[in-house]
Structures are given as structure tokens and as C-alpha cells.
Specification:
The chain has 333 residues and is an alpha/beta fold. The chain contains 16 helices and 14 strands. The strands form four sheets. The protein has a five-stranded mixed sheet with strand order 7-6-8-5-9. A four-stranded mixed sheet has the order 2-1-3-12. Helix 2 packs antiparallel against helix 12, helix 3 packs parallel to helix 4 and helix 6 packs across helix 7. It is globular, with a radius of gyration of 22 Å. The chain starts with a helix and ends with a helix.
Length: 333
């Protein structure tokens, strides 16, 4: 065998070893909601390093983002997510109802399997030219509101429930809340598919005077579009939006990735991950980290879904299922 043949065989051996290494490396798919892209990009980098340090093994995390309900349907229909990280419990409950995630998914991780939370606020154009300060300003004539379709995204459901609950928080009745929300949606020129789509409508297409979205989107906008494009307005009250997570049992049983998937979701509760959440204006569960970032999370009267709607599942039936309250008050333009 001449030198050239030996070199070729050696290179082939190296290539084979590399391909075997790649195939042996665990890969997880995290299917998540629309505006969590940047957050999970940073989480994934931190987790890969942490996992390597603790286990000595390499791991790769792939991401998929879109409207949370559309994402849940994709997983239900066969998208092989190892974990789901959503922004409403109803999307995880939907997967539990078909056996894709465990029926008792809330008991699998602390805080009812919600390592972080958020709330809804307003993004307005720089210097707030329309003087928008609170919910009542959104129903004024001539104000255009950009919001996600509550049938396709948890961002939209939480915006709707926050608007409804703001009336109840002030002592109003459900009838008064329904009237208020109907007026608000008359000021909505187009319903976005998901949170990032809503941001693009607001900033790239320059539609609307105010965007109702998650608190964390302020950081994302500043990073993607540059600081100074928007001002964040914290209304007098808003809703607690929990961010539930679950292992996709169907996928991990097939791939043998259950331990890695659980390690990934447990990592979200670590001090390191809670710090990353706070840096993205996502509310950490850790009291110490929350206190450290007090300047990020402005004082606001928060109410829970349970206070005015019973549960998200009940809200889904009453407000967002076909023929529900949303269909009655919103006419497609």
C-alpha cells in the first residue's frame, strides 16, 4: 500500500469517527412560542455548556417557534418535539388530552411546571405620540391596536384576557368587560398570527399606534430593531401569564431522550437560567433574581386568570372556542 492509499484510508477513518460522533450526539427539539426565540437561543447555549460540564456529553438543541396554539397542533400532528415550552397552559393541556405529554405534566416540575412568567403591556412608537397610558386609551376613536389572533397564539389570548380583566379589576362587570373588549377589537386593523408577526406588523409594516404584547418583547425589539424605536407602557393592571413546559413523552420514548429532555427543563429553574430570563424581561420564579432586576419589572397590579375566568381551560371554552365570546364580538375585516 503506497503513501497515498494509506493517507486516504486514514482520512476515511477520521471521517467515519466524526460521523459516528455526530450520530451519537443527542439532539433535542424545543417547540416554543413565537417571541421566545432570542431567550431560548441564550438558554440553549448555557445549557449545552452546563450539560457538557455535568455529564461530559455533548448535546444539541434545535428550536422551532410560532404561534403557540399552531405549534401545539403541529406537535400533536407529528412534529417530533422532545419538549414544549409554551405561554399558555391550554396548549399543553391540549397535548396531554391526546397523550402526547403526560396527563400530570404540571406535577413533573416545580411551580406547576412553569419556570417563568410574564405579563402583557403596550409598546408605542418613540415618545408615545398618541399619549397612550392605560387600557381606556385603546378604545378611543382613531387609535389602531395591533394584537395577535387569540385563536392562533397564547400572546393573543393573554392580551384579550388582560383587557377583559382590566375592567373587572376596576370593579366592572363581565357585561361591561365584554363591551370594552368589543370596542377595543373594533380598533384592531389586522390580527397577527403570532407575537413576532405582530411586532413585524407594528414595526416593519408600520401599522398601528400600539402593540399589546408580552413584557419580554421590549428587549427583543431593542435588540432586533435598535433602541429608541418603541416606548414600553405599563398599564395600571395586567394579567399573570405563566410559561408552562413539558416533556413530549411520545417523542422521548421513541428517541430515548427522556433524561436529556428532563435535564433541559430542570435547567430552566437554575440560577443561571433564571438570570437569563430576567435579562430578557421574562419574570423569573427565583425571588432573589426577581429582586435583583426590580428596575426591569415595573410595579403593576397583576391579576391571575383564576380570579376572573376560573381557569385557562374555562376561558378557552367561554371565549376562544368556535362560537365563543371572541367570535361574537370580533368581525373579520
Amino acid at each position: 500500500m503506497n503513501f497515498k492509499q494509506k493517507a486516504t484510508l486514514a482520512l476515511a477513518g477520521i471521517a467515519l469517527s466524526a460521523s459516528q460522533l455526530v450520530s451519537a450526539q443527542t439532539t433535542l427539539l424545543n417547540v416554543s412560542y413565537d417571541v421566545a426565540r432570542e431567550f431560548y437561543k441564550d438558554i440553549n447555549s448555557a445549557f449545552v455548556a452546563s450539560y457538557k460540564k455535568s455529564s461530559g456529553k455533548d448535546i444539541k438543541i434545535d428550536q422551532s417557534h410560532g404561534g403557540s396554539s399552531a405549534q401545539a397542533r403541529a406537535v400533536n400532528d407529528g412534529l417530533e418535539a422532545d419538549v414544549v415550552t409554551m405561554n399558555t397552559t391550554t396548549d399543553v393541556d391540549f397535548l396531554a388530552s391526546s397523550g402526547v405529554v403526560a396527563k400530570d405534566w404540571r406535577q413533573k416540575f416545580p411551580n406547576n411546571a412553569a419556570p417563568t412568567s410574564s405579563t402583557m403591556l403596550f409598546l408605542v412608537r418613540n415618545n408615545n405620540p398618541k399619549g397612550i397610558k392605560d387600557w381606556d386609551d385603546l378604545v378611543k376613536p382613531g387609535i389602531q391596536v395591533v394584537v395577535v389572533n387569540p385563536k392562533t397564539g397564547g400572546n393573543g389570548r393573554m392580551a384579550y384576557l388582560a383587557a377583559w380583566g382590566s375592567v373587572r379589576k376596576r370593579g366592572g362587570t363581565d357585561a361591561q368587560a365584554a363591551d370594552f373588549v368589543a370596542k377595543l377589537y373594533k380598533n384592531v386593523p389586522v390580527l397577527a398570527k403570532g407575537g413576532r408577526d405582530a411586532t413585524n406588523i407594528f414595526l416593519q409594516r408600520n401599522i398601528g399606534d400600539v402593540l399589546i404584547t408580552f413584557e419580554s418583547e421590549v428587549v427583543s425589539v431593542d435588540r432586533e430593531f435598535g433602541t429608541g424605536k418603541v416606548d414600553a407602557i405599563h398599564p395600571s393592571s395586567s394579567i399573570v401569564a405563566e410559561n408552562p413546559v413539558a416533556v413530549v413523552e411520545r417523542t422521548v420514548a421513541k428517541k430515548g431522550t427522556a433524561d436529556a429532555a428532563r435535564a433541559y427543563l430542570n435547567f430552566l429553574y437554575s440560577d443561571e437560567a433564571q438570570e437569563i430570563a430576567a435579562q430578557h424581561a421574562i419574570r423569573p420564579r427565583s425571588p432573589a433574581v426577581l429582586k435583583k432586576y426590580a428596575s426591569t419589572f415595573k410595579p403593576i397590579q397583576l391579576f391571575t386568570v383564576e380570579e376572573y375566568f376560573g381557569s385557562l381551560a374555562e376561558a378557552q371554552k367561554v371565549h376562544f372556542n368556535d362560537g365563543g365570546q371572541f367570535d361574537k364580538l370580533y368581525t373579520v375585516r
